[in-house]
Design goal:
Radius of gyration: 24 Å
Shape: rod-shaped
Strand content: under 5%
Mean pLDDT: 87
Oligomer: single chain
Number of strands: 0
Order of helices and strands: HH
Amino acid sequence: MKNIDFSTTFKAKDFDRELISKKLDNLKDLQYLVNSETVNNQLSKWRTSQPDNENLKKFTEAVLNIELYINELQNDRHLLMLSIDEYRTDKIRAIERARKAETKKD
């Protein structure tokens, strides 16, 4: 049992890359929300000035469906990242327990 190697390497660059990726995702999400709000405000103005325009109603509905879909994708990505973080934490904890058990055994 002494030959089992539970060593894992956690390079600082990997953590930096992950942190930067999360920051970039947050910036992209923020930019999307700003753009979405701009579009929705304009659509609202147009719908107020042209309440009987059927093409505008269809267009507004299509934009809202796109926004709902994007929101679902963002939520899925967020849940995936939470799951990955949880699995990583569990793995590190299991490795630490195995190391402690190995040192106690020796």
